[in-house]
TrEMBL record:
Pfam families: Beta-Casp, Lactamase_B_6, RMMBL
Record SUPFAM superfamilies: Metallo-hydrolase/oxidoreductase
Hydrolase listed as a keyword: yes
Keyword Acyltransferase: no
Protein's name according to its UniProt entry: Metallo-beta-lactamase
GO function terms (MF aspect): hydrolase activity; RNA endonuclease activity
Domain Metallo-beta-lactamase: 13-233
Annotated Beta-Casp domain residues: 254-379
Length: 465
């Protein structure tokens, strides 16, 4: 058998890893959209590196768009097989992919309004109809229940603790009377996550595909998240009379922020100002999380003994219409606006940043990973100006970040995730979903732990197993 890495190879988006068995069976682990890659993003998303019609199965680790966002394109180009995931991942994928299809359709319509004579019209990457067909191909597999998807392939999902429904994927691949065990970590969560259970241990693997987003970082903040949020809100909204803009992914990060703010209210510390979640998708994602309380950790379960809804508090309003969103930019009163996307690469948050970034009374608070080329990455890097809506804006607002809110584990979490494995029994460990320099540092940490064969695949690189 062999494995080829068609995304998340020396970068953190576009997760796609293709396993090909001697029999001809092809298994695709994730089918993610490339995001935040600058001018090359469109080209990367238009070429798979393999024929979708030849794929037999897709196994989806979780519903973040950089892991599932090209599934409708895969279906549109000929994939006819099943997509295996947890129940919560299917629920999230449905709303995220439908939202993504709407964005692609709107982008194509906008581009076509500016066509020059003789230019071909732009087609969306995929449509809502493609999403409907894609969701119809999902098959749910429960955590911790081994399941045969074919005589050659058995899958086991264990909780990865990253977002609701996220799983590490464990395969038993049977060829010529020999069984090979392969683990794909998906994205690994924190062992101190605000909401979710810790990642589970898993059986010994022969080969491991390991994410490495924060393979050289520790998510250590001097204070708990709620204390940092309180300090920023007081300084910005109460003292400077400004706005706090929080670019936050609709899935996971938004719910963590709401939970932390709710905790401040329970302690009677939450400042009495408006709090807006300006993302219809975030409302739907929050409901999905509420529908799957089995993923909550013990801390959340304790809070729910005194507060039935740990994601709601006084002053909170979900914004749905475009008109309401625009009105926020014309309202100069102090407030907190939580809006997608987390890297500030698209969505309503870019309008809020444009409206606030050049005023020093405001704060833009980054609460997760931002690719270096993304708007969020430029702000974190300390750029003095940013390019938004075809104009340059001076960065006068205060730029802050909360490292501890990342849904990705740091290198201590990643090493703890692997601590259930005997390094001597792992034939090769592949690092995926990370920047190359970070992966090189993490590879050395893994070798220090006894993992002798650590590889960092290049884009489209293939390995025989």
């Amino acid at each position: 058998m062999n494995i080829a890495f068609h995304g998340a190879a020396r970068t953190v988006t576009g997760s796609k890893h293709l396993i090909s068995l001697i029999s001809g069976t092809k298994i695709l682990l994730d089918c993610g959209l490339f995001q935040g890659m600058g001018e090359s993003t469109e080209k990367l998303n238009s070429y798979f590196g393999f024929k979708p019609s030849e794929i037999n199965f897709v196994i989806l680790s979780h519903a973040h768009i950089d892991h599932c966002g090209l599934l409708p394109r895969l279906v549109a180009e000929g994939f006819k097989g099943n997509i295996f995931s947890t129940a919560a991942t299917m629920d999230l994928a449905r709303i995220l992919l439908m939202d993504s299809a709407k964005i692609h359709t709107q982008d194509a319509e906008y581009a076509n309004r500016k066509l020059s004579a003789g230019e071909d019209p732009q087609e969306p990457l995929y449509t809502e109809e493609d999403v409907v067909e894609t969701i119809g191909r999902f098959k749910v597999v429960d955590y911790n229940h081994p399941f045969d998807i074919s005589p050659e392939v058995n899958i086991l999902f264990t909780d990865a603790g990253h977002i609701v429904g996220s799983a590490a994927v464990h395969l038993k691949l049977n060829e010529n009377g020999k069984t090979t065990s392969l683990t794909f970590s998906g994205d690994v969560g924190r062992y101190t996550d605000l909401l979710l259970k810790s990642p589970q241990t898993f059986p010994q693997a022969d080969y491991i595909l390991m994410e490495s987003t924060y393979g050289d970082s520790l998510h250590k903040d001097l204070e708990p998240t709620d204390n940092i949020l309180l300090e920023i809100i007081r300084q910005t909204c109460i003292i400077k009379k400004g706005k706090v803009i929080i670019p936050a992914f609709s899935v996971g990060r938004t719910q963590e922020i709401l939970y932390a703010l709710n905790g401040l209210e329970l302690k009677n510390q939450l400042p009495d100002i408006p709090y807006y979640v300006d993302s219809p998708l975030s409302l739907q994602a929050t409901q999905v999380l509420k529908n799957h309380p089995e993923v909550y950790n013990n801390g959340v379960k304790e809070v729910m003994k005194v507060d039935a809804d740990p994601f709601s508090f006084k002053g909170l309003k979900f914004i749905e219409s475009v008109q309401e969103s625009k009105a926020l930019n014309n309202d100069n009163r102090p407030c907190v606006i939580i809006s997608a996307s987390g890297m500030a690469e698209g969505g309503r948050v870019r309008h809020h940043i444009r409206n606030t970034v050049s005023n020093n009374k405001n704060t833009i608070l980054l609460v997760g990973y931002c690719a270096p080329e993304s708007l969020g990455g430029e702000l974190l890097a300390g750029n003095k100006s940013v390019y938004l809506f075809r104009e340059n804006y001076q960065v006068q607002a205060e730029i802050r970040s909360i490292r501890s809110m990342s849904a990705h584990g740091d290198y201590e979490d990643l090493l703890q995730f692997l601590s259930c494995q005997d390094p001597a029994a792992v034939k090769r460990l592949f690092l995926v979903h990370g920047e190359y320099e970070v992966q090189q540092h993490f590879a050395q940490k893994l070798k220090d732990k006894g993992f002798k064969q650590v590889s960092i695949p290049e884009y489209h690189q293939q390995f025989d197993l």
